[in-house]
Specification:
By secondary structure, the protein is of the alpha/beta class. Helices cover 36% and strands 13% of the residues. A hairpin with a 2-residue loop joins strand 6 and strand 7.
């Protein structure tokens, strides 16, 4: 395929993807389509144009192969086509045999993505987090209590100034109060939550403190399985699905004493903010969606409905809703957090991570959910020497100089962020990211993996039940991905290795670098390479058409670190937030 498809973004505006999907076709495309139409092939979707007519009893012919060649960007001779007919016909039996084997979404392929093959090793040692609760007094109002950070709530709970049952009831009440507007909840886990909160209070009363999350309520994106409750993946075909497993991150949060109060919305099958119950709204401007696919976590944290939530990212699904809703999001290094019990979209790109008010809160959550899990072979143990008192002047910090010079909406806020970092005593070093490789073409891997993960849904027509249809939606992308040749899929992954090698060279020069959140190709590159990032709010712009309105357009900036060096990224983001107050802002929710 001479020009690969752009991958379907799991977060970005739904009108920006795949604009040039068919641009590789020659100028005689219309004649070609007429030719395919004469063969009865233009409407076929799977297993590919080669084999569609066989399902209707029509044989593969050299003419069928010639038509398929154009889609694959290939050219064979008539003699070669004649030789191919018999083998391709035989191959259909293999496909049919494969399709007879049940493949639930949680069955992994016989390969594991390893981001270290680019040359960045896992840091040595077993250093853990250094953190102690800081004294804080309980605020007078429940509204102020609801917007406290995880770190602050942890101290209040440990000193018994507030009880877990009280906090749980507060957040459940706020969820129920604002959800009719925000549409951020799919399922309340109230019975489970109250039992967990009661147990947390009993343990804390007895002087047993499990750690910073003990008794703290939270929400989870509804692609994480919890027995006894629906796990809908935000999609109509799975609206009543109940899975009899507990996701690894839920297990770890249970062990830490955290209290799950709700399963929060996601765009259907982790794309956008539209799910089978409607569109999740942005608390800063309820006429706008909250972006996605971690739509519910972004909206709920921003609105003070939970102090933290677990989101996921494949290509922006933590970063984008964190930006839209003005919260802090941490996308961990690929393999740092187990995905067992989570919906699979792309085995080599999916990551789970926290969304919260602050980088410090994200660090507290990440420290609990990280670590090796044999049920997810991509996971690794890693040191996590996060220390909120760390002197960030010791870090080698770069910035993506060219990206900050571009003309974009948040530019002045981003430049001011660089100035804050300089005032902290950081010597910023200009850097460049690799620009000699076809990043957009490599993103076809996401589409192919997603199409494989939901192969049966496509073949059975289940995708037709999804709310969003048409171009730039999963149903369409799943179908188009069936035409990506296996050879090109593997070639894209080989070039991905080169990209990881180029990024390893960048991180020989710096520990962390700063980038405009959506500038310089950073989001696409680092999701392909598995590098960690922390996205923090750094602006709240007035509405262009109504500057006097209390509604705002949040802006963000992103910190990116070396593989498995999440601590350094979070410490730099924490230092920035200690010098600013953007993470403390509250939305109008109206």
């Amino acid at each position: 395929m001479r020009r690969a498809t752009k991958a379907a973004s799991c977060f970005l505006s739904l009108d920006s993807v795949n604009a040039n999907r068919y641009s590789a076709m020659p100028l005689d495309r219309r004649l070609f389509l007429q030719y395919c139409s004469a063969l009865g092939l233009t409407g076929t979707l799977f297993p590919g144009v080669l084999y569609a007519k066989i399902e209707e009893g029509e044989p593969i012919t050299p003419e069928t192969i010639a038509c398929a060649e154009r889609i694959a960007g290939l050219s064979f001779t008539e003699e070669q086509r004649q030789m191919m007919v018999e083998d391709l016909t035989e191959r259909l039996k293999d496909y049919e045999a494969l399709r007879q084997v049940p493949l639930p979404n949680d069955v992994i392929p016989a390969f594991v993505f390893d981001p270290t093959i680019g040359g960045e090793p896992i840091p040595e040692g077993t250093a853990g987090m250094r953190w102690e609760p800081r004294p804080v007094e309980r605020p007078r109002s429940d509204e102020d209590l609801a917007f406290m950070t995880v770190a602050e709530l942890s101290y209040l709970l440990k000193t018994r100034q507030v009880r877990s049952v009280e906090l749980t009831e507060l957040y459940l009440a706020r969820l129920k109060r604002y959800d009719p507007v925000l549409k951020a909840v799919i399922t309340y886990t109230e019975e489970r939550a109250m039992a967990q909160a009661q147990q947390a209070d009993e343990e804390l009363d007895a002087g047993h403190w499990r750690g910073p999350l003990h008794g703290v309520p939270y929400g989870a994106k509804d692609l994480l399985a919890v027995p006894g409750y629906r796990t809908t993946w935000g999609a109509k075909p799975y609206e009543n699905q109940v899975l009899d497993v507990t996701a690894a991150v839920i297990e770890k949060l249970d062990a830490a004493g955290a209290v799950l109060v709700a399963k929060l919305t996601l765009g259907a099958l982790a794309w956008g903010d539209v799910w089978f119950g409607g569109q999740t709204k942005n608390p800063w401007n309820i006429e706008q969606g909250s972006s996605g696919s971690s739509a519910g976590p972004g909206a709920a944290v921003a609105a003070g409905l939970v102090p933290f939530a677990i989101g996921s990212e494949t290509l922006g699904s933590i970063v984008s809703p964190s930006t839209r809703n003005g919260v802090t999001g941490h996308r961990p290094t690929f393999g740092a957090v187990s995905r067992y019990g989570a919906m699979t979209l792309a085995w080599t790109m999916d990551k789970l991570g926290p969304m919260a008010r602050s980088a410090e809160d994200c660090a507290l959550v990440f420290d609990v959910i990280r670590g090796r899990d044999p049920r997810d072979p991509s996971t690794r143990d890693m040191p996590f020497p996060f220390d909120p008192t760390f002197d960030v002047r010791q870090l080698r910090v770069g910035y993506l100089a060219e990206a900050f010079e571009a003309d974009y909406e948040n530019r002045e806020a981003d430049r001011q962020t660089l100035q804050v970092l300089r005032e902290l005593g950081i010597d910023l070093k200009p850097i460049r990211l690799p620009d000699d490789l076809p990043v957009s073409a490599m993103l076809m891997t996401l589409e192919v993996e997603a199409a494989a993960a939901f192969d049966e849904l496509t073949r059975t027509g289940g995708v037709d039940q999804m709310v969003r249809q048409g171009r730039n939606t999963w149903p369409h992308v799943f179908r188009v991905a069936r035409f990506v040749p296996a050879v090109e899929f593997l070639q894209a992954n080989r070039i991905r290795t080169l990209l990881m090698q180029r990024m390893a060279e960048v991180f020989r020069e710096v520990d962390v670098f700063v980038s405009p959140t959506f500038g310089g190709g950073t989001l696409q590159i680092t999701n392909l390479t598995g590098h960690p990032c922390v996205c923090v709010p750094n602006a709240f712009h007035p509405l262009k058409d109504n500057p006097l309105s209390p509604r705002r357009r949040p802006g963000s900036i992103t910190f990116i670190g070396g593989l498995y060096r999440d601590a350094e990224v979070l410490m730099l983001a924490h230092a920035y937030q200690q010098a600013t107050d953007f993470h403390r802002r509250r939305p109008p929710i109206r």
